[in-house]
Structure formats: structure tokens, C-alpha cells
Design a protein that fits this description.
Helix 1 runs antiparallel to helix 2. This protein has 2 helices and no strands. The chain is mostly helical. It has a domain of about 30 residues.
């Protein structure tokens, strides 16, 4: 996790402790946006078919 994300995560944690119930949905959404995007296993590009007819 890059240093900026750690700092942001710490600040978010502090805010969450202060306003936990009031903004729970917003904090969950921000945490989800901060999580890394899973890499796609599907390759992009042309793949010729192997037709043996």
C-alpha cells in the first residue's frame, strides 16, 4: 500500500471513530474505493481460432 493510502487510511480511521454511526455508509463506500482493483484474467486483443475442419 503506498504511503499516501496509509496516511489517508489513518485519517479515515480517525474520522470513523469520531462519526461512526452517523456516516457509516459513506465510510464503507470510501474504503471500497480505496481498495485495489482486481486484475482481469481475460486478455485483450485478437486470438485466432484454431479451426481444424
Amino acid at each position: 500500500m503506498p504511503l499516501q493510502n496509509r496516511e489517508l487510511s489513518g485519517k479515515l480511521h480517525d474520522l470513523e471513530a469520531k462519526y461512526d454511526e452517523q456516516f457509516k455508509v459513506e465510510f464503507d463506500a470510501i474504503r471500497q474505493l480505496m481498495s485495489p482493483v482486481p486484475q482481469s484474467k481475460r486478455r485483450i486483443g485478437f486470438a485466432p481460432w484454431d479451426d481444424k475442419t
